[in-house]
Amino acid sequence: MEGDCLSCMKYLMFLFNFFIFLGGACLLGLGIWVIVDPTGFREIVAANPLLFTGAYIMLAMGAMLFLLGFLGCCGAIRENKCLLLFFFMFILLIFLAELSAAILAFIFRENLTREFFTKELKKHYQRNNDTDVFSATWNSVMITFACCGVNGPEDFEAIPHLPYSSLEKATVTPEACCQRELQSREGMFVNKEACLSGNERFQNRQGCYTVILNSFETYVYLAGALAIGVLAIELFAMIFAMCLFRGIQ
């Protein structure tokens, strides 16, 4: 009976570690996608140090879970106490790190509010000055997502004009808010002169906060569900690892 229980525990341990292996692969893939994605999310991440750090933490956690899931599978099948103990200690450290990251994300969630981004835009944005990293990043985001400002073009009313274009002086709307045939910096303007002279027909009027939130809402919920699932699997894997460790003679 004891041998059957140990055998069952071994295969359950293998199963949970296989899920950890898959979860690590998903986190690794998601972290790589966030960092190298060419469609605009990379610029948003780069503009916020908290998001930038979080992306690399997710990448590192995914790589470690990928490796530890593999080691856990080997330890369970071979019934190796050394591998099981090594697995338990590292999965515990990762579990605590992920839990800490989730708590920090909850504490600093106010840094991702509409008001925060609006304040930062009005404080640091320099219109067409692409030598400024903040301004160049915002211009890339607005072009990529066909949006304007955080809430809309009215965000730029308090931002002083820079002497880049005589046309731009006639409107508060920056060039990046003008409609393009293709949403990239290389895309041709639909009507740049009319846009900069204040014709709303040729301007992107919707704020970037709403557009980006709608674009990534599904991914945010998916990432949250995945994180909860990974934490639960890690907890069960640690329990099974310790039980299997104590059961091996």
UniProtKB/TrEMBL annotation:
| Predominant cellular place of this UniProt entry's protein | membrane
Is the keyword Glycoprotein in the record?
yes
Give each disulfide bond as a residue pair: 147-178
User: Keyword Transferase, does the record have it?
Assistant: no
Q: CDD domains annotated for this entry?
A: uroplakin_I_like_LEL
Question: What cellular-component terms does GO give this entry?
Answer: plasma membrane
Sorted keywords for this record are: Disulfide bond, Glycoprotein, Membrane, Transmembrane, Transmembrane helix
Where found? Membrane
Bilayer disposition of the protein = Multi-pass membrane protein
**Family matches, as Gene3D superfamilies:** Tetraspanin
Any Pfam family matching the protein: Tetraspanin
The residue ranges crossing the membrane are: 12-36, 56-77, 84-108, 219-245
Task: Identify its protein family.
Answer: Belongs to the tetraspanin (TM4SF) family.
Specify the protein name. Tetraspanin
Q: What is the lineage of its organism?
A: Eukaryota, Metazoa, Chordata, Craniata, Vertebrata
Which gene codes for it? Answer: Tspan18_0
